[in-house]
Model the fold of this input.
Amino acid sequence: MNAFALVNARVFDGWRLTEPATVVVENGLIASGAARGERIDARGAVLLPGLIDGHVHVRSARARDALARHGVTTGLDMASWPPELSASLRGAPGTADLRSAGLPAIGPEGPHARLLVKEPEAVVTDAREAEGWVAARIAEGADYVKIVMEAPGGGGVEAGVAKAIVDAAHARGRRVVAHAASAGAYTMAVDSGADVITHCPRGAAADPADVTRMRAEGRVSVPTLVMMRGLARFFGAPGDFAGCAATVAALHAAGVPVLAGTDANDEPGVPFQAEHGASLHQELRLLVEAGLSPAEALRAATSLPARHFSLGDRGSVEPGRRADLVLIDGDPLAAITATAHVLRVWCAGVEHLPT
Done:
């Protein structure tokens, strides 16, 4: 039996920090009852649930392990191919656990088709192809479906095709994530019925009508502020980021769930490469600057992505959950930047030991 007990740890319970307590781990899960095995004295440090990055691109063990090194124990990959690559990066002990959208749906002429995704099978131009396309992604192991939306006329997936893909995915019990980084694409993503909209418009904030619909229809946002700020700077329009921050503020004020995601990647040709793992701590700070409280930002990287991506075995520190744990130095409710001061990380009860 693999068992240990963390003693004298202040635990973030989703709302506050507890007084020093003991957290027992047995066979990769948080357990109840008396402590067994090794006793690890946390000396009053803060214990968080393992962090979840709601938007990453992981194409190597190095990138996956960088997530874990920074306390990100789960990464939600938003485009990965071939299927063998995703499979090869899953299941390794003591490092980040990955979920994946597999191959995304793209249009024939958008930036993704020109620069990033060269697989012909990714291009979907006819609504009649939607059911077969979704079935193929699920057969390859996709945990959810990704659609790349561009502004109308921008060469992305057309509105009718996107709606057909969403309907086909929902019929098979899969959530749909829509990429939308412009105002027009954002509206198309809302119209499509996608469950999760990732990114946010640069420049002007999202249409208030879209925000209202997202709240009323139970949609979720992963704004990727780190990426949007990086793109604004790359294109020489740093003022564009103000619209992104305003969108997040409006979504949060309306009660739309906002999840932490970074678009971390090391892809050649991408205008901005957010660093795996480290960028999530930057994202948390930007979410707080946009109006979330530190506790809300922490939930955006723990319990909320677990809930909205059906990861019911993680996202909190309580008996029966995976022992995905991050020990940090400092009080993140007083200063969200404390999350970056990672002392130790456990992935399903196995400590991550950087090589």
User: Anything to note?
Assistant: The chain has two domains: 3-47+314-351, 51-308. DSSP finds twelve helices and 15 strands in the chain. The first strand starts at residue 3 and ends at 11. The longest helix spans residues 241-254.
